[in-house]
Amino acid sequence: MHARPVDLAPLIDHTLLHPGATDADLMRLAMEAVEHSFAAVCVNSRAVPLVARALAGTPVRVVSVAGFPLGASLSAVKATEAELAVRLGAHEIDMVLSVGDLLAGERGRVRDDISEVRRAVPAAILKVILECGLLPSALRREGALIAAEAGADFVKTSTGSGPGGATVEDVRLLRETVGPHVGVKASGGIRTFAEALAMVRAGANRLGTSAGVAIVSTPGCQLPVAEGPPCA
């Protein structure tokens, strides 16, 4: 079985989280997502009403973030941001877990932080960002397990703002940790079709990237899903 660039479109969260994003930038993001049949757009909470209106009547979903990018907000702040975003039209929330608490071994605090957001948005898809670049492998596993226990629908590799982005090794580790019933989102530094396909091969079933259009527009490239040399 071979994969073409366009085959990855339904896995892509077309992302624009830059603080300088204008309304025109966000509208372009939404229209690109519709044109290329991406899974969703991922935006900051202030942008949710605009892109939700733009995407009304289309299958493209709206993703917003909570506690982004540091994960150091009060749990109540994360929960409120998530709840308001959903009320304004978001279907999914990508929250950053409390990285400092995880590094300090405060497992209960990490779980409670995620659980508070989960309770605030019970009907939304909840993705928990681990920021793997800050964590040793044992804590990446532990963070993923805590997230799953707290009700996360997905675990996510990184914010794209921290040290390092998605790696094949991290995606594989997260998939092995959470098994087949929790999603894995690879995010951070995914720029090419070859990189995106490598993440899918490793176990990702959602891709966060600002380069979605370039990825699905890669000319003359077709690769086996399971193996094969990379395309440029």
Radius of gyration, in Å, reads 17 Å
Low-confidence stretches: none
Q: State the distance separating the first and last CA atoms.
A: 20 Å
Full CATH superfamily name? Aldolase class I
Which CATH class is shown?
Alpha Beta
State the total count of DSSP E strands: 10
Name the beta content range. 15-25%
Q: What is the total domain count? A: 1
Share of helical residues: 40-55%
Shape: globular
Structural class, from secondary structure content? alpha/beta
Main β-sheet description: 8 strands, parallel, barrel
Identify the CATH architecture: Alpha-Beta Barrel
What is the mean pLDDT? Answer: 94
Order of helices and strands: EEHEHEHEHHEHEHEHEHE
Specify the number of helices. 9
What's the CATH topology label?
TIM Barrel
Strand order of the largest sheet: 2-3-4-5-6-7-8-9
Q: What can you tell me about this protein's structure?
A:
With 232 residues, the protein is α/β, with parallel strands linked by helices. 40% of the residues lie in helices and 18% in strands. It has one domain: Aldolase class I (TIM Barrel). It has an eight-stranded parallel β-barrel with strand order 2-3-4-5-6-7-8-9, surrounded by seven helices. Strands 1-10 form a two-stranded antiparallel sheet. Helix 1 (23-36) packs parallel to helix 2 (48-55), helix 3 packs parallel to helix 5 and helix 6 (137-149) crosses helix 7. The protein is globular, with a radius of gyration of 17 Å. The model has no long low-confidence stretch (mean pLDDT 94).
